[in-house]
């Protein structure tokens, strides 16, 4: 298993603390702020939180399901394989849990095998971009097939990678290709009628400690942006050391809403991490006059590690934002996901 998953088991863990702030909850599948019209990286907050899909397909969404009083977390996965039978079973299992929202399938660090771009999986094996797309389609097929008849659940299925020492000739080109394969999946979902329940998105575990210069992270995000597919890129990373510890505020904000397609699903494993994101949100509002675009939170809770549970992580982030910013704090949709290693 690559170091990027080892880190999640060892680094950034702390004891659970109860949060005491009540928030108005919305549909478990409702995420991500609406994208602005083309023409730059400026962002305009939406009046109401939309579904996590491209603006080009908003008219074709299924109606949102009823809000839950206690939103449940989806299960995101560190993938060791792109075998379609395995991914299809994963999707079916997710459907049987009856949870909508964002699901990130993390396929590891960007890589190139001399012929094609792709990733190094968490098994250490290389997987090409097209193989990843086929695997994600299998997940979507399994999810849709195993939903209860008449279900209105939706998921945003995000193809995940990271900024962990990219093994590619060009991070910019890797970002463009990542965006184009996200669009290819969207087309396949629509042509097979799966788009009613599954929408295509992308994700990047962007961590300052893995790219201290920020150059390759920036190039990947710019490449994704310049493909102009209209799909969202969720940053499910961290702010190692806080603002100024490794990345400055402008760099951290760029991958959390400064880039027009970027949205943040931050790792919230403890109170310190929540305070770091609250500080970034404060700086973004007062220095750049734009909000951090939160789309939810991600955790790594298991019965063994006793890590922070998704609901607690959401409450702690909301409380940290309220303390630092006040009534003008950006919204954090109660879109929860808990990531763990996939069985294979």
CATH class: Alpha Beta
Q: How many individual β-strands?
A: 11
Mean pLDDT: 85
Question: Main beta sheet: strand number and arrangement?
Answer: 8 strands, parallel
Count the helices. How many? 8
Structural class: alpha/beta
Question: How much is the radius of gyration in Å?
Answer: 18 Å
Q: Give the helices and strands as they follow along the chain.
A: HEHEEEEHEHEHEHEHEHE
Helical fraction: 25-40%
How far apart lie the N and C ends? 13 Å
- Return the CATH architecture: Alpha-Beta Barrel
Strand content: 15-25%
Structural description of this entry:
There is one protein chain. The protein has 344 residues and is an alpha/beta fold. The protein has one domain (3-35, 64-341): TIM Barrel (Alpha-Beta Barrel), CATH 3.20.20. It is 34% helix and 15% strand. The protein is built from eight helices and eleven strands. The chain has helices at 3-10, 84-97, 129-146, 171-191, 215-226, 249-258, 271-288, 310-325, and strands at residues 74-78, 101-106, 109-112, 117-120, 126-128, 155-162, 198-205, 233-235, 262-264, 297-299, 336-341. The strands form two sheets. An eight-stranded parallel sheet has the order 9-8-7-6-2-1-11-10. The longest helix is centred in the middle third of the chain and has 21 residues, at 171-191. The two termini are 13 Å apart. Residues 7-68 have low confidence and may be disordered.
């Amino acid at each position: 298993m690559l170091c990027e998953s080892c880190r999640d088991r060892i680094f950034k863990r702390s004891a659970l603390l109860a949060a005491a702030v009540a928030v108005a909850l919305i549909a478990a599948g409702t995420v991500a702020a609406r994208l602005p019209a083309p023409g730059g990286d400026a962002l305009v907050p939406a009046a109401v939180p939309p579904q996590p899909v491209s603006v080009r397909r908003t008219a074709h969404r299924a109606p949102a399901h009823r809000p839950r009083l206690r939103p449940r977390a989806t299960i995101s996965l560190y993938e060791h394989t792109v075998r379609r039978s395995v991914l299809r079973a994963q999707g079916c299992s997710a459907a049987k849990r009856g949870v909508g929202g964002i699901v990130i399938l993390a396929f590891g660090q960007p890589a190139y095998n001399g012929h094609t771009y792709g990733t190094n999986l968490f098994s250490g094996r290389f997987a090409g971009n097209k193989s990843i797309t086929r695997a994600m389609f299998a997940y979507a097929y399994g999810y849709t097939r195993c939903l209860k008849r008449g279900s209105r659940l939706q998921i945003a299925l995000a193809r995940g990678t990271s900024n962990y020492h990219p093994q590619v000739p060009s991070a910019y080109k890797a970002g463009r290709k990542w965006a184009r394969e996200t669009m290819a999946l969207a087309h396949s979902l629509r042509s097979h009628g799966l788009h009613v329940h599954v929408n295509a998105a992308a994700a990047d575990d962007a961590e300052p400690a893995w790219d201290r210069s920020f150059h390759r992270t920036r190039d990947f995000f710019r490449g994704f942006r310049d493909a102009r597919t209209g799909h969202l890129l969720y940053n499910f990373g961290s702010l190692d050391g806080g603002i100024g510890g490794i990345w400055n505020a402008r760099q951290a904000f760029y991958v959390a809403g400064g880039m027009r397609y970027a949205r943040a699903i931050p790792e919230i494993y403890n109170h310190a991490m929540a305070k770091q994101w609250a500080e970034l949100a404060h700086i973004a509002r007062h220095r750049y006059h734009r909000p951090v675009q939160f789309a939810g939170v991600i955790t790594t809770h298991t019965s063994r590690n006793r890590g922070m549970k998704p609901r607690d992580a959401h409450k702690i982030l909301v409380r940290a934002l309220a303390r630092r910013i006040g009534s003008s704090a950006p919204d954090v949709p109660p879109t929860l996901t808990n990531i763990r290693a996939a069985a294979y």
